[in-house]
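dumping this here so i dont lose it
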């Protein structure tokens, strides 16, 4: 089963039902809203939301050659941008767990430049990531699978987040009560979904609108 159509009182509930049927996370699907919900008057003429949800190609199906091409484009862009900013850095590619990282490494006497690139709570790094995503997408015509990292900031963040998600998932499996996490960006939610998928008896989905969209972990029905 690669595509399902589901209805529910809200678009989000319909999407969640489709994701459950497909056994997929929101990052793994394309969603088409067939019909918006309508409340009607005094319950008369109301209609459910209808969505059509289709599985995308799984991430591990992306050819390694494509990842290397994306990585080279991203590395060239990042290196040129940082050079124009006057920052002393090195750039190298690393393929890890099906993700191509563009690692930015400090080459100066201290890490001041690296701290500037990361920014408060990683905000500057996220902006650099978005610029790189746009450039890679424009050059290749497909979605970017490249992660820009500065001195392993993203890898450490990913490790901590995955560990936290697994701990919460185990607690949900033990207590039988769902838990809602703090708002996260799409990259962070993907890390959580992947971590939760490895814990028996639980499932995850996302709730809310950007930038307040959150992951919810609940017992598997």
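and the seq i came up w/
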């Amino acid at each position: 089963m690669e595509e399902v159509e589901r209805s529910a009182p809200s678009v989000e509930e319909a999407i969640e039902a489709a994701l459950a049927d497909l056994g997929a996370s929101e990052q793994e699907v394309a969603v088409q809203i067939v019909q918006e919900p309508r409340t009607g008057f005094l319950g008369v003429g109301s209609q459910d939301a209808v969505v059509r949800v289709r599985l995308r190609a799984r991430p591990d199906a992306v050819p390694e050659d494509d990842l290397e091409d994306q990585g080279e484009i991203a590395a060239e862009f990042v290196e040129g941008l940082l050079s124009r900013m006057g920052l002393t850095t090195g750039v190298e590619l690393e393929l890890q767990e099906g993700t191509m990282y563009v690692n930015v490494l400090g080459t100066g006497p201290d890490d001041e430049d690296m701290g500037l690139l990361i920014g408060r709570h990683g905000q500057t790094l996220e902006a650099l990531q978005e610029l790189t995503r746009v450039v890679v997408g424009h050059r290749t015509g497909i979605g970017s699978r490249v992660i820009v990292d500065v001195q392993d900031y993203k890898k450490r963040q990913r490790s901590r987040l995955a560990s936290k998600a697994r701990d919460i998932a185990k607690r949900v499996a033990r207590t039988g009560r769902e838990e809602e996490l703090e708002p996260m960006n799409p990259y962070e939610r993907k890390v959580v979904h992947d971590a939760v998928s490895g814990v028996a008896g639980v499932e995850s989905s996302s709730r809310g609108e950007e930038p307040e969209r959150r992951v919810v972990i609940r017992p598997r029905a």
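The radius of gyration is 20 Å.
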